[in-house]
Amino acid sequence: MDKLTTPTRQQREIRAELGQTLGNFHPGQLPYPDARAAEPPARRRNPRALIVAASRIKTDPGQVRQKERDPSSERIQDLAKSITAVGLQQPPGVRETADGMYEIVYGEGRFVAMTEVLGWTEIEVMRVDVEAENLIWHQLHENIHRTNLDPLDLAAAVRQAQAQGHSLSQIAERMSKSETWVQKALTVSERLSEPAWQTLAASGERQAMDTVYAIAQVPPEAQEEIAREVVEKKLTRRETEALVETAKKKRTVAETPKRSGRKKKGKPYETTLRTAAGASVTVKFRKVEVEPSDVITALEEALQSLRQGIRSAA
């Protein structure tokens, strides 16, 4: 029995060496000096990322952002400085076309900055699977939620979406905006005169949507003068609205015929509109003098209330 349980000298030496090894072991110690080289990379490259020659990329002429696309514009110059300083953080999105080219879906400003300002001949892009009819939604989301899209460009884009057969509620849902917000954009696209539009566009200043909407409320022949004053004096939204109200009152006074004797009090304004389907809508005001723009605004507000009521009932 003693012969079986008593360790030999060799066994004692092995146990001693093993004990010494275990005593010196540290859990954080790597078994081999170069073991870190086998660690996986920190991230994988997006499989949709491509390096494409700039000559194979074309811009979309129908891009919703029409202002500040020139390489010399302040926006493009700032983008070029940012890319030089910190690199390209978000590659432009492109879709492959039938001719083997790539058309920009979003990020045109970055593309112009890299190719026309910085002179890059190859750029990184992100391939996007989108059909031509859905391009406008991708561009609107990019420009509205990532940057501040000019209200003039926004108005034109919303008008384009409506022309494609989309309703007000559909546009609002796709853009994650309220119907009131979309309605203002449509009103600007429909009622802002071309001279006023050009005055605002040529200023290089991005006006608030409410400011442009206020200008669109006055008669077309008065809009250019108001737009010019807004640009030259850098008026705020409230100042613009006050200017519009003053212009409306002046026009009402100028068009009111002068009568001798005691002024006769007129009846409150009332008008009935009829549709091709035979329906009729009557609009009444408490005041006597009413501008056509006041009637349009009242109808728009009534439609908005009706839609909200229908949604609440559903």
Task: Characterize the structure shown.
- This is Chromosome (Plasmid) partitioning protein ParB / Stage 0 sporulation protein J.
- InterPro entries: Chromosome_partition/occlusion, HTH_ParB/Spo0J, ParB/RepB/Spo0J, ParB/Sulfiredoxin_sf, ParB_N.
- By secondary structure, this protein is of the alpha/beta class.
- The protein has two domains: 46-148, Conserved hypothetical protein from pyrococcus furiosus pfu- 392566-001, ParB domain (Alpha-Beta Complex), CATH 3.90.1530.10; 150-255 and 289-314, Arc Repressor Mutant, subunit A (Orthogonal Bundle), CATH 1.10.10.2830.
- The chain is 51% helix and 10% strand.
- The protein has 13 helices and seven strands.
- The strands form two sheets. It has a five-stranded mixed beta sheet with strand order 1-5-3-4-2.
- Strand 3 and strand 4 form a beta hairpin.
- Helix 3 crosses helix 4 (108-117) and helix 10 runs parallel beside helix 12.
- It is elongated, with a radius of gyration of 34 Å.
- The termini are far apart.
Which terms would index this structure?
Conserved hypothetical protein from pyrococcus furiosus pfu- 392566-001, ParB domain; chromosome partition; 314 residues; alpha/beta; single chain; DNA binding; five-stranded mixed β-sheet; Chromosome (Plasmid) partitioning protein ParB / Stage 0 sporulation protein J
